[in-house]
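Thread title: Can someone regenerate the structure for this chain?

I was given the following input by a collaborator and told the matching structure tokens would be attached. They weren't. Posting the sequence so someone can regenerate them.
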Amino acid sequence: MAEAETGSAGAAPSGERVALLVDSDQEARAAFGRLCVEFGLEVRELANPLDIFGELGNEVALVVLASEAPSALLSCSQIKNEPTLRDIPVVLVSGRRAEPALIRHWFGESRADLYLSRPVDEGAVAPLLHPLLGQT
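Best answer:
Regenerated them for you:
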């Protein structure tokens, strides 16, 4: 499996699709990084969910947020409520299966496209990402 390559903030090369990862869990970041590289995405790791809004002008194909990160659920809702951004797939990852705020978010109108728990099983997640990234 290819190693995840991470880039710094800034514009992606023309035509390059980008995945934005915000997760303090190193194993989850590495797993999503590898998956995104396999899908041909440039990977950008960000420290704060609110930082994604500075990157959304790029060719963003996927946003992965740790639900425990401050403002993660709010950032997801803002993306899904904005007509020009709502088609960007958002994945929320949690270390706790029955997190009450996450359960409420699941039933909201501005929910994520996919909810996953840690540890991230790359073999199980890859087929779930295919339709989100427009691949079969």
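Helices lie at 26-38, 72-81, 100-106, 122-132.
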